[in-house]
Specification:
4-stranded antiparallel β-sheet, Jelly Rolls
């Protein structure tokens, strides 16, 4: 039998956990454009629709109901909607919601200088 162990990293730190209120019918950036910037190595980047309305998202461009890469559906039962993993790129994420919603974001960075 082969056993794999998950090892918790010592050199991770999280950006502030500040939910973003997305106004109705307004494109809003929820993750910044970090392409070519020295902001620490990104280990994980996620957004989650925690509001009650659908959330359109666009990667690297301004989002609208006619220009989007996908939709994160809400979960009106327990307030936990769809989640998007943005860990494999540094492009900005723009979102749009016809009725407005709230987005939780998680950014975890790797810093070899931290212990």
């Amino acid at each position: 039998m082969i056993r794999t162990l998950n090892v918790a990293e010592n050199n991770l730190y999280a950006d502030a956990a500040t939910p973003v209120t997305v106004p109705a019918a307004t494109a809003t950036d929820v993750l910044p454009d970090e392409v070519g910037k020295v902001t620490g190595e990104i280990a994980y980047r996620y957004i989650q629709n925690v509001g009650v309305n659908p959330l359109y998202y666009a990667i690297g461009q301004t989002c609208s109901t006619v220009n989007y890469n996908g939709i994160l559906a809400p979960d009106v039962t327990n307030g936990q909607g769809g989640q998007l993993d943005c860990s494999n790129h540094r492009m900005r994420i723009s979102v749009y919601s016809v009725g407005g919603t709230t987005v939780a974001k998680t950014i975890i960075r790797r810093n070899n200088g931290r212990s």
